[in-house]
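User: Second chain of the day. Same drill as before.
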Amino acid sequence: MVHTTDHVKDYGGKALFNDRGDAFTVCDLKADGMTAEAIVKIGDADGTTAYLSDLDGAGTCKHFTRNMPENHSFKMRVCLQKNYRGEYHCSNWAWGVA
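Assistant: Same format as last time:
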């Protein structure tokens, strides 16, 4: 799991991975006019990039699955967007294995 870096009081967004079903989730945690976006890179540095945004506001989550072979690596981070543009308060990249 990764969180955005805007944790003055609490985080604005989070992204997580569940290896059961290779499921990714991004959640918008604040009603602050910003949306949460998860960026997932599958494979090596030139691998597939997936973007998932939670456009419905605070307390909502979006899910997607990606069938990956066992022991396949990926990295992900979560950022906030304002008006569906830019990347703010991004987490560091976190590595995972399916």
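DSSP finds no helices and nine strands in the chain.

User: Great, on to the next one.
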